[in-house]
Amino acid sequence: MKIFHQLYSIDEAIKKIEEVYGVIKPPGEEVVALIDSLGRVLSRGVFAGVDSPPFDRSEVDGYAVNHLDLRGVDESNPVELMVVGKSSVGELPSFSIRRGACAEISTGAPIPRGATAVVMVEYTKALDGKVRIFRSISSGENIAYAGSDIMMGDTTLRKGTRITSKEIALLASLGLKNVHVYKRISVGLISTGNEITEPGEYLEPGHVYDTNRYSIGGRLQEMGIKTKFYGIVRDDYESIKERILYALKENDVVITSGSTSAGAGDLVYSVIDDLGELIVHGIKTKPGKPTLAGIINNKLIFGLPGFPFSAIVAFEFFVKKILKKMTGDDEDPFILKGNLAIRVNSSKNLEEYVPVSIIWREGKRMVYPVYGNSGSISTMLYADGIMRIPEGVAFMDEGEDVEVTLFSSVSRLPDITIIGSHCPLLEEIMGTGGVKYIKVGSTAGWYAVKRGEANMAGTHLIDEETMEYNIPLIEKFGLKGKAVIIRGYGREQGIIVAKGNPKNIKGVEDFLRDDITIINRVKGSGTRTLLDLYLRNIARERGISFEEIVEKINGYVYEGKTHSSVASAVYQGRADAGIGLKYYAVLYDLDFIPLDIEKYDLLVEYSSLENPRVKRLIDYLRSDELKNLIREKYPGYMVLDDSGKIYGI
């Protein structure tokens, strides 16, 4: 067997599958009770057999009148009409309305013959056998006419529509008790890998929890697909083979995750090739390249990569397209157009899928990449959707028009957008509801506020001229009169090293030792700026350039996205040291060598000072509650004398 026969584009891969498998379609249709139809897909279009509403009815409580009797009527010139009856819900009135007369009517009750409008009870006063009316009214006001919502014979829902609660309500209003739907398909899920652990169990070193079972399983259930999990299988050929055959007996489709590459320990492709036909082994996407598809016993089987984000991309943009054909689901994905906020480089020879977050700015949707890697699941928390970069495109420039496939049709606009440096204390103070966080480092946060894309940026940048944090940069970024600094709190920065400091690291100068490997922070972060400041001082003392100093450091180009990633790398032995917060050293039970008390502040766009959440933040920074929270949960943090003070007004 050849390894990686050929890489296909997604469309080519689907075409290859159809050439071997045949037409991909639903397995048939069935009739189900309307009450049981949630999540199912209509196999036939629905035509209205009745008008909705089925009769002319009142939309308010009041009096059914001939509107001509109310011409010129107002509070200073009321009119009195004779009340000739009452129209109640569920009963057809036996009387009609003539000029000079009216009838009391309830919301939803049929309109009597001769009435042309309904005046609300709030504009009337009941008298003995009469009613005094204080307002004129137009023809048809407060009347819902028969068929005004849906007319008999209208196509109300088309074939291929997925039934949600709103479709159920519509179908019920048309009097349908049962509906024709496509038969549901069933999918078996199998996780593979020696390192995979079931959530809730003890996580051994070098192991990871099984994310894909839940992320892919949840997506299948959202599609209305019956899903069954067949456990975690170790990287053993016979075990994988046995589990796949068992799952195929009970399901229409089987999806595995992990063990799909061409490495010695990756076996799923070998099992498929031996039991049936391996049609696709590799697609031209990043991430998701080692995705596979095949047929065993005339049933489809897909192998997704083990890394969580890779698995999601491969499922959403490849496997899901085929499953939608099998379920009959004809609805288009949720796509929004926007403008790219910053340049994004791409792998020119692959189709790339980038998680993004959408920000509104002056009526435009600005699209920000949410950086992570194929093994990252946290990117999904901060992303609104995924942007596709076509094969052959080396980069997409700032301002370019892009399309974003949303994770959900519901996209709530945040009350406040925070772009900049990450801080767990800020997230606890602000909460998550109605707040959008984009973690891109301090410098990018300043530019986001300057462009109007963020209400606020977390920042801990030091000005090398004054050696002061954040405040002098307002003028340097051209934000005087446009943004202010709210003094936040102090955070102890230092060198995070392994427990017991086995390499006997005492300071930044030790980073130049041959036996030391560090993990750095991303460019533009306050921590990276702090390290570079120390290194420039060392370079001056030694009489060499900054570039020469950097070349001597093992791991200088090895970057962690957050303070947590630095601590994690040291904890796992991937690095000997890194600059980070004391908070994370304590969290990971590591040793810590203090370097500096940095000031973590909030750069706030001027008009956002009136935002209620910003006002509450300022009050909280000045309160004893912050002191108590820091004392209880945040070692290495401290309240400052000027916490909550506004600078730059």
Alpha carbon gyration radius: 33 Å
Ranges where pLDDT stays below 50 over 5 or more residues in a row are none
Number of domains: 5
In CATH terms, the superfamily of the largest domain is: Periplasmic binding protein-like II
Number of helical elements? 16
CATH uppermost class of the largest domain: Alpha Beta
CATH architectural group of the largest domain: 3-Layer(aba) Sandwich
Strand count, sense and closure of the main sheet?
8 strands, mixed
Average residue pLDDT? 92
**Which structural class is indicated by helix and strand composition?**
alpha/beta
Helix percentage: 10-25%
> Which topology of the largest domain does CATH recognise?
D-Maltodextrin-Binding Protein, domain 2
Number of strands: 40
Rough shape?
flat
Distance between the termini: 70 Å
Describe the model.
This protein has about 650 residues and is α/β, with parallel strands linked by helices. It folds into 5 domains: about 10-15 and about 185-325, MoaB/Mog-like domain (Molybdenum Cofactor Biosythetic Enzyme, Chain A, 3-Layer(aba) Sandwich), CATH 3.40.980.10; about 30-50 and about 150-180, Molybdopterin biosynthesis moea protein, domain 2; about 55-145, Molybdopterin biosynthesis moea protein, domain 3 (Molybdopterin biosynthesis moeA protein, domain 3, Beta Complex), CATH 2.170.190; about 335-410, Beta-clip (Beta Barrel); about 440-645, Periplasmic binding protein-like II (D-Maltodextrin-Binding Protein, domain 2), CATH 3.40.190.10. It has 16 helices and 40 strands. The strands form 11 sheets. Strands 31, 34, 35, 36, 37, 38, 39 and 40 form an 8-stranded mixed beta sheet that branches. A hairpin with a 2-residue loop joins strand 20 (about 290-295) and strand 21. The termini are far apart. The mean pLDDT is about 90.
